[in-house]
Amino acid sequence: MAAPGENLRINSDRLWDSIMEMAKIGPGIAGGNNRQTVTDEDGEGRHLFKRWCDAAGLEMGVDEMGTMFARREGTDPDALPVYVGSHLDTQPTGGKYDGVLGVLGGLEVVRSLNDLGIKTKHPIVVTNWTNEEGARFAPAMMASGVFAGVLDQADVYEHVDKQGKKFGEELERIGWKGAEKVGDRKIHAFFELHIEQGPILEDEGIDIGVVTHGQGLKWLQVTLTGKESHTGSTPMPKRRNAGLGMARVIELVHEIAMDYQPDAVGAVGHMEVFPNSRNIIAGRTVFTIDIRSPEKEVLDAMDGRIREGIDTICEALDIQYKIEQVGAFDPVTFDAGCVKAIRDAADRLGYSHRNIVSGAGHDACWINRVAPTAMVMCPCVDGLSHNEAEDITKEWASAGADVLFHAVVETAVIVE
Ligand code: HGY
Ligand code: MN
Ligand code: MN
Hints:
The chain is of the alpha/beta class.
């Protein structure tokens, strides 16, 4: 396939301006974003993205999980499309770039092709996957998981948020439940541009992460049940303290992750205490353990040790426990051909690059199961993400989008 010329670049100002425009929707309280999935703010962001796609002459399709597919025609209508995108939903205290860079980077690829009057054999489809974050409704990468056939649509429709609202009902309420059957679309290749969300690229002064693998993940939601009682008059030996149990499990998760350095990670970010009153021993706690590793054997070993540890902790404290796996995916190896297209693009464009394993999960991790897939990463300041202070430079965004542009266009085959 003829490679694009090294002078083929995206429009850096337009990409940056679009990211800043999207950031105005669902603003956070500290300069980032709170545009959680299937909220009104998510709906507003979707409408803005659709307006931009309409202006770029793209045909919009929406499936039953609300995922948006904006199609630019190719010269061969029978050729499977090259998909490019990420997600527009954010964490409750999220940044402006996590996910958004990938969706608007994909849109910029199409806008640049339109500017240059370039036609490709394969159609190109810019994609916004619903509920990548999994913060409001578990699991993460929900819509791409249904698309890849690893999550059940009817089941995830019933998943509830902290207010007891159902995902399926909320998707319908914001008016973005589409008619397309999820997963019917066939994909020639999928590319996702994403910020690294870690410190490696910035620390090493490297422009581009060529993502060869993604680490595996498990989310274990734990419910501990003890007994509410007075914090003043209940003798220590008589307490059944679910709060103490949660504290000991959190410490256990950390210790087990530290046993598998340098790659394994583990933490508890979601914690709920009931009744959460200053002078009542916590009768019930609900929290989610997040463990990850590039090696499946390590992930499984951590899982097993944590379950044993929870049993021992609860026995000692005379409390009951329930463990539900609410999210999981094995470590991912991305498609060698797509990875090569990204690496060759970085070389051609003169950007420094290195292979990297994604620490975070991404829609690409699921789509890799149904189509050749790879990811491009750009650095982020201090490696910070899932924090409103998340930040990147315009140059990093442009370099990532240039590489995405070349990888997508080469794979879609320039016709004229
Ligand atoms: O949890 C993750 O890795 C992703 O950011 N949703
Ligand atoms: Mn993301
Ligand atoms: Mn994220």
